[in-house]
Amino acid sequence: MLASIVKHKGAAPSMISTSAGTGTLPAMIAGVAANLFLGFSSLFWKELASVAPATLLGYRIVLSLATLVAVMALLGRFQGLGTRLTGRVVAIHAAAALLVAGNWGTFIWASIHGHVVESGLGYLIAPFVAIAVGALALGDPMTWLRKGALAVIIAAVLAMVLRSGELQHWVYLVIGATWGGYACLKKLTTLDAFSGLLCETVVLAALLAVSLAASATTMRLPAAIPWPAVPVLLALSGLVSVLPLWLFSLAAARLPLSVMGFFQFVLPTTQLFVALVFYRQAVSANTLLCFAAIWLALGMLLAEPLVRRTLGARPAA
């Protein structure tokens, strides 16, 4: 799903114009590394379990903003940014910011409370949310293969809701909806990935400041937290959020979308591995079957271009 976010329609040419044949192996490594990093990042947030998830979200917003400002200054990305911030672009990224907050907060909560299978499921179904929203709101075409894949997803989600009592169903529904919706919004903007995320974190930082000013809530850390481990990890939370995006941008600049699409298997699979091996999360046979069904549906989507080319190449009868 990050593939579609980083390499979205209308992105700045400097982000996507590199030839697909240049640096293919490093680009493949960067794409896989970004997904693995995201998948294993649950363990990072788990180490911060002594801090409330809402407080962690606040620190993630502030430190992500600081990291993005530093990265964009280093790369010279601020030049001309102001001229691209039209009212429409700002509105798109303000809406995207709300989805980011929901996604980040839910992911942190799931990582701390041991519901990593659910977060993996959320990222697995996100492409289908994007397809459904694209068809309903943006008029994207719905092929028979896409309809079949969506039918499989709906059946799998219903089966999990009815039969997988060990899951926190709201987690994968929120992550899937926010990440899929986020991908759709990113198709509507002309900003590159870093500039877009900068706008979104600015919006979130402003909302955070208003929230702190209007309530008795603070971002003060509990007195009983382990020192210096927790403060050091907190200081790294901005880098943890921005580094995968940078790796994906490297991959997206050098790889075709047909290759980037296969990375969508890596993050959910890594999350399932982390849940089973590190969290020892209990997973029913029904959940595993539904996971496999969604994998199959995602495979159907990725095979669509090949099927279309094959059918188009058939000689006329």
Automatic annotation (TrEMBL):
The keyword Nucleotide-binding does not apply. The keyword Transmembrane helix applies. Coiled coil: none annotated. The chain crosses the membrane at residues 25-45, 57-78, 90-109, 121-138, 145-163, 197-219, 225-247, 259-279, 285-303. Keywords: Membrane, Transmembrane, Transmembrane helix. This is Transporter. The lineage of its organism: Bacteria, Pseudomonadati, Pseudomonadota, Betaproteobacteria, Burkholderiales. The gene is rarD.
